[in-house]
């Protein structure tokens, strides 16, 4: 078996289940967009047990011309606090990002202005670095506790032909979340490994200990990079072709939802799709700003106020609360730095229990001339 084939097979096994053919993309749970779901099992023979997989799901190389003119955040935009901009209602003027926003609409419009004011940057790679967390309930029925499983991923998509796509990642381990969880975990004997099963899947082993960072170069000229959007998978060219007028963008996304058979309420689907457009997709600056302005008019979004993400970065949070199957209320949150217009994190919460159930931190989402890591092992450590 060739090295390239082995790498592609490993990536296929790590692909999020929601992207697999036949997966029902019409139903979207908040945890699906906050953190990668457990890897689906491919056909054929499998190990009896499998480690918790880093769900990277990275596509292959995209056409170079598509990336030209896509912007990012420069250092000046991170430190500036006032900027001229054009608002969604056509007004022009100064946005004061020193004053806390009084509504979700105001926050989104300020973020749109900041993106338009930021200098566009280019680069050899689109680099997306993120940390993902997914909560799991463990322990005996009379004393359950929650653990957070964390993993780090990097995706390096080349702009020019001939450069390899590089996937890097690290399993960061698992640990009790709150002090109460830690006490219940200690009462359970302080286990350092958990095993869970699901119908049609091999048992999955969750280790408390972290594993070394790794990288995998992938080069497959026959495949084009694709990204999940609105229940579909789209190319970078299709992303770049989306309208940069907020109303037209909303119309285009609603048409996509209808085409894909999305059954979630329109406002909720617009919120989680818009959250991806502003946070972790390689889109032009004008489209990112239009996405923020579209979000400003989405019904049901609530300003939650000042918040810090899982790395302690300060921002302002907005949320959308929905009632899912069996009456369970969940809240999808987006944390934004109003001074830069940068989306810092996406989170999902159990409203009744007031518990964080999953998150994605956006650490880097920019075009850069930096090069991917080359001095890392080519696969995660195994025991």
Automatic annotation (TrEMBL):
Which stretches does UniProt call biased (Basic and acidic residues)? 78-90
Instruction: Write out the entry's keywords from A to Z.
Output: Membrane, Transmembrane, Transmembrane helix
Q: Which organism is it from?
A: Virgisporangium ochraceum
Positions of the UniProt region annotated as Disordered: 78-103
Residues spanning the membrane: 52-73
UniProt cross-references to InterPro entries, sorted A to Z: CU044_5270-like
User: Bias category Polar residues: which stretches?
Assistant: 92-103
Listed name of the protein: CU044_5270 family protein
